[in-house]
Design brief:
Strand order of the largest sheet: 3-2-1-4-5-6-7
Helix content: 40-55%
Distance between the termini: 49 Å
Bound molecules: NADPH dihydro-nicotinamide-adenine-dinucleotide phosphate, 2-hydroxyethylsulfonic acid
Shape: globular
Number of strands: 7
């Protein structure tokens, strides 16, 4: 029987690449995000390859909407084998004492509370079945703060701690828990961070060959495909000319 992967934030970037990778890899996929047209277009594309695809449109910050969406899954979709907690964002690149409190709240509500909501909704079923895998998308930004990264870095440090905590709490089960920590990946991330300023977003990737969503999806899929006794706890993936959140060598 085919396994099922649920990927949050599958309308773009890393999440979209994960949806493609898991569908190609023989999984049925549940894809989520707020932009339903994009979810429907991806569903049509993936179904052509023979995968079964279910779309769920909701905002991960809205715990009631998330609960209703997961609760609406019929029997066919209710066994989720892999949860990829990917939905997230950075907003702004400002000094901490000058930052936007609205941007901070959005990042905290999405990257931390949204991830926790999805975990709370889906992991109890994995524990009941004594089977499953939670793969959280953290970041190199969670390893150490970089200039003006303050609150975004803190949310990804929280993802690391929350992931470690879940792994500890599930060590008496067969459920595996992974933190994938990418560096610079060219997606819509910087466009979102700079509130739609495409020129500023493009500058982030000038002079360095960044990672792609597919590079990250390959590692996510590798972790999910490891033998049952192997738990890939954490992976840091950087572009060759990036050494840390702060060290990027541009040509
Ligand atoms: P994108 O902006 O391309 O994709 C972000 C995805 O998250 C979209 O599908 C978006 O869907 C979804 N999302 C954002 N907010 C919400 C919300 N409130 N509710 C539901 N879905 C939401 O960026 P990336 O693919 O780069 O980012 C994916 C993850 O990877 C994030 O957690 C990010 O922090 C992390 N990351 C990114 C890196 C990079 O350099 N790009 C490096 C390290 C980590 P929609 O707008 O349709 O809701
Ligand atoms: C995204 C990577 O370095 O822009 O988490 O924060 S970085």
């Amino acid at each position: 029987m085919k396994k099922t992967a649920l990927i949050t934030g599958a309308t773009s970037g890393i999440g979209e690449a994960c949806a493609r990778k898991f569908a190609e890899g023989g999984y049925n996929v549940i894809i989520t995000g707020r932009r339903s047209e994009r979810l429907e277009a991806l569903k049509a594309e993936l179904e052509e390859t023979g995968a079964k695809v279910k779309t769920l449109t909701f905002d991960v910050r809205d715990a009631d909407a998330a609960g209703k969406a997961i609760g609406s899954l019929g029997e066919e979709w209710s066994t989720i084998d892999v949860l990829v907690n990917n939905a997230g964002l950075a907003l702004g690149l400002d000094k901490e004492h000058e930052g936007s409190m609205e941007d901070w709240n959005t990042m905290i509500d999405t990257n931390i509370k949204g991830l926790l909501t999805m975990t709370r909704l889906i992991v109890p079923g994995m524990v009941r079945r004594n089977s499953g895998h939670v793969i959280n998308i953290g970041s190199v930004a969670g390893d150490a703060a970089y200039a003006r990264g303050n609150v975004y870095c803190a949310t990804k440090a929280a993802v690391k701690t929350i992931t470690d905590g879940l792994r500890i709490d599930l060590a008496d089960t067969a459920v595996r828990v992974t933190n994938i920590k990418p560096g610079l990946v060219e997606t819509e991330f910087s466009k979102v961070r700079f509130h739609g300023d495409e020129e500023r977003a493009d500058n982030v990737y000038k002079g360095i060959k960044p990672l792609t969503g597919t590079d990250i999806a390959d590692v996510v899929f590798y972790a999910a495909s490891a033998p049952a006794h192997v738990q890939i706890a954490e992976v840091l993936i950087l572009a060759t000319h990036q050494a840390s959140g702060s060290v990027i060598v541009r040509q």
